Amino acid sequence: MTLRPSTLRPGRDEDAEGFIALVGDCWAEYPNCVLDVDGEVPELRALATYFAEAGGALWAAEQDGRIIGMAATRPLGDDQAWEICRVYVAKAARGTGLAQRLLTAAESHAREAGAERLVLWTDTRFEAAHRFYEKTGYVRQGSIRILDDVSNSLEFRYTKPLRGLVVEALDAAAAASAEAQLARILVSCVAAGASVSFFPPLAPAVARDFFKRVSSDVALGKRVLLAAWVDGVLVGTVQIVLDTPQNQPHRADIAKLLVDPAARRRGVARALMRRAEQAARGLGRRLLVLDTAKGEGAEALYRDLGWVEMGVIPGYALWPDGSPCDTVFFWKNV
User: Fold this and answer.
1) Reading across the β-sheet that carries 287-293, which strands appear in turn?
2) 190-241 pLDDT, tens per residue?
3) pTM of the model
4) CA distance linking residue 144 with residue 230, whole number of Å
């Protein structure tokens, strides 16, 4: 059956019956997930008023007089952070782009209100929701929240910077949650001709496996993983490899500087490198080493950032056509 287009509008208190039915249906898809409206979420009976009093906003997606989607946002009052709340879409309307429309409406409202960061909580059982949020640039952060409710709920905290160019270090949970998006960036970079140890076409599964190993190293303290966002979109990454020999505790390698081809020439690579140098220095890694293919754009960037060439190894690697690729090695004291 083809669904008619839905209407996105401000939510109203009169939508209470529809909101309750939508949330109840969504929760019923998961074992032991029970909606107790009056006992635990009485605000559902006047949700527009609830969010208005919190300084936020609420949206409803309506189709043929029925509520098929909802989303809300509100300020958290700390460091210009806003929370994304109550994102639900009826099962029949999933895969239509409605969830993205609702999330975009909430994010745009928060941005216009001055939000610098977005935060959301999602039940650990809602795996499809996790994939959706991760696809839109959110990463897990912090400990799991335990709710004292009839559903014995556990929740993950997701977050992302919303405004401008921001570079942050990812902890183990964040690194794992970012694997799919970082793999997408790697695939795009390889397709665009980047010499980063892989040949095109790079299978997404191979790229994902690579970042699974990276996130494992992050958890073991062997690697620092940095990520860059531009206006809420995850667009770049670089790594600091800390797994050096015992007699080199002062050294680290910089690896896999990647910027989505669609986000280049916006200062992302430079910001990632600056942040990597700062992070390495904070960890006591004063001597940094990296390499890049001779003639690639990154070579000029490294020179501009004060990296010192220590030599070129002819034919160190291969280009996709099998021809030799000369590699330049750089070092820098930070």
Assistant:
1) 165-170, 223-230, 233-241, 251-259, 287-293, 324-333, 308-318
2) 999 999 999 999 999 999 999 999 999 999 999 999 999 999 999 999 999 9
3) 0.95
4) 27
